Amino acid sequence: MKEQGIKLFFCDLDNTLVPHFKIMPTEEVLKFIDNVRAQGMTFVLLSNNFNKRVRFFAQKSFIKHYFGMVKKPSTKIVKKFMKNHNFKPYETIVMGDQLVTDILMANRLKLESILVQPIMNTDLKLNSLNRFLERWIYKKLEKNNILIKGEYNDQWFESKNQEKLL
Ligand SMILES: [Mg+2]
User: Fold this and answer.
1) Is the separation of the CB atoms in 78 and 71 below 8 Å?
2) pLDDT tens per residue across span 34-87
3) For residues 160 and 137, what is the distance between their CA atoms, to the nearest angstrom?
4) Which pTM does this prediction carry?
5) What domains sit in the chain, N to C, each tagged with a CATH number?
6) Which protein residues have a CB closer than 5 Å to ligand 1 (ion)?
7) C-alpha span between 118 and 16 (Å, rounded)
C-alpha cells in the first residue's frame, strides 16, 4: 500500500477489528494500527455504531481520528475528512467487513477497498435488509466465480486467474 502511495487508511470497527460486543482493542489490533501508522499513513476509525462505543475504543487504541454514526454507505464524513486534510482518492483506502456499508461507501467515492472476513457472523447492528442484500450479492459473486465468502485465499485466487488465462 505504501508503494501504491496510500496515505489515508479508513478502517471499520465492528467485526473488522474486534467483534461487535468487545469494547477493548486486542494486542493484535494495537499492533496493526501501529503498523499502518509506521508506513506513514493516517489511520481513521469509521463506524456506524454509537459515538460512545467508538470514542471509548478509539481512546483505548490511541486513535486520534475517529467517527461514530457514520451511516455508511453515506460518504459525507469521509468526503469532508479528505477535503479538510487534503487527501486525494488515489491516496485513500477503506477496510471493512460489509459489502453494503463499507465497500459500497468506498465504491461510491471510487476509493480502493479491502473486504475482510467478518470476525463474527452475527452482527446485531446489521439490519435485516442489509443482511438480505449481503447474502444476495455473495450468491451472485459465487455464481460468477468471483468470490466465495469464507473461501478466499491466495491459492484460490491464483487458480481462478490461471483459469482465465487458459
Ligand atoms: Mg463491520
Assistant:
1) no
2) 999 999 999 999 999 999 999 999 999 999 999 999 999 999 999 999 999 999
3) 19
4) 0.86
5) 8-120 (3.40.50.1000), 127-166 (no CATH)
6) 12, 14-16, 97
7) 6
Task: Dump pLDDT digits (tens) for 111-137.
Answer: 999 999 888 876 555 677 888 888 899
Cell matching residue 146: 468471483
Residue type, 104: L
Nine-digit cell at 91? 491516496
Answer for the pair 30, 9: CB distance below 8 angstroms, yes or no.
Answer: no
For residue 14, report the distance from its CA to the centre of ligand 1, in Å.
Answer: 4
Distance from residue 156's CA to the centre of ligand 1 (Å): 24
Contact 106, 113 (CB under 8 A): yes
Cell of 104: 459500497
Q: How many CB atoms lie under 10 A from the CB of residue 8?
A: 21
